[in-house]
Amino acid sequence: MPGKAVRAQIKDLTSLVSNTFHLPGTGRLILETLLATKTALSVKDLLKRVKRSERSVRGALDHLVAKGVLLRKVSLTGRKRLAYLYTIGPMDRIVQVVRGEILNQLESLERLEGTLHETKVPG
Asked: What are the residues whose beta carbons fall under 8 Å from the beta carbon of 40, sequence distance 6 or more?
């Protein structure tokens, strides 16, 4: 189990990424779990740890993989079935992805500001 300082850093990183991408609670829990375990986990393992529905977990995983925060690796189970293992992406990649999203949000805000500035307010 990570120490107190590491747990605080995990919470901070999880909050920043979650707020930036407007993640629901399940996505936040998945991030915290993967950051704390520092190992690849299957959907089955994540379901046990985050105690959320499979649909919610799979949706959050798909979203986090699409954003580039998580990596998905194909593996084979003992019964020769395909399974996915999920890990946190490299930290520099996460910083790059979060920075890009924040810049996109800032550009949207600036466009709205320009539009609202040009619109005359009745009064």
From this structure: 73, 85, 86, 87
Find out if CATH 1.20.120.80 is the number for domain 4-118. no
State the distance between the two ends of the chain, measured CA to CA, in whole angstroms: 60
Q: For CA atoms 89, 26, 29, 34, give the dihedral sign.
A: negative
- Burial label for 42, CB within 10 Å (0-12, 13-18, 19+), is middle
Residue spans per domain, the chain: 4-118
Reported as a single tens digit per residue, the pLDDT across 55-109 is 999 999 999 999 889 999 998 878 888 889 999 988 888 889 989 999 999 999 8
pTM: 0.77
- Specify the residue for token string 């529905």: 53
